[in-house]
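User: Thanks for the earlier help. One more: Ketoreductase domain-containing protein. Can you show the sequence and predicted structure together?

Assistant: Of course, both are below.
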Amino acid sequence: MSSAGPPPPLPPWSRLEGQVVLVTGASSGIGRDFCLDLARAGCRVVAAARRADRLRSLCDEINASAASRAPRAVAVEVDVAAGGSALEAAVQKAWDAFGRIDALVNNAGIRGAVHSPLDWPEDEWDRIIKTNLTGSWLVAKHVCRRMRDAKLKGSVVNITSIAGLNRGHLPGSTGYASSKAAVHYATKIMALELGADRIRVNSIAPGLFKSEITAPLFQKRWLSTVASKIVPLKEHGATDPALTSLVRFLIHEASSYVTGNIFIVDSDLLRCRPGGDAQVLNPSCLSLLQLFEADVYSVLDGSTNKTHKSVTGKRRLPRNFLEMKTKETMMLLVPQTLMLSNVLLDTSTTSCEGSLLGTVPVRLGYS
């Protein structure tokens, strides 16, 4: 009986020994996962966030598992929306923790409330923009200045969202989506201008991953149905390794010729949405997609109503949507224009019969 042979070699970015990485938004969710993974890869981690107690717990966990007595993780309490001298002082403290910063993972951000674009309170809009856009730029500004002056070949990784990309639309997310789209363009311009200083800037735009913000969605039983019918890989992503491995790569010198890119990690979900490359879309997927968007809106908004009203006020979708009779469901959705961006449905030759999860094609026209 032949042996299986040696295991395949690990990629070079599996080890990042000695790299110092600042991670913002580190106290929970994806940011916390990044810190733990980078520590396992051999990095020294500066964990930054507002919640000091959670940061201390995270750093204690990392340092307890370290082989050496020297700390592998240091906590820095910071609110990226604070701006001014307070934010710069926090960045200086992060720099001083290990004497340098080789990479920044700009992960801090908030979703904010859910509103129609006609109902957004100005103070809520300002809070989202100040945190997600201004805060990420200021942290990068202060870190990259120090990288430049120390003549370090640095890497900045901005964690954004597919909400800020074409076809990544989610009703009620005007503020959040606008802030993330702006970070994408800031990424490209910063990459263009900081290249002369050997500082690389890239963005990662995740799809739906489990985090503190999305945790309520993952309690929904229908989410697996959405994944199996809409997501090409038939499942939702796990931070480790889908995102952590990419962050490692962008920190490692193997990516030394990679800058100004937006890496989409969503199982190609964007291209399966109306407005994507597909010219024929399964109406059941359209139904599920609208259900998904409506329920995301209600779950994230904290609604407890039995029906979900879209932010445009034009459609109500019952919570037991998938349990409705097929014909009634398709008559509700298909013969009318769905509220999906830049899409017109030609239903003149489309049958409303068949299984809700069937394969009746719908021709799409683009406005």
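User: Great, one quick takeaway?

Assistant: DSSP finds ten helices and twelve strands in the chain.
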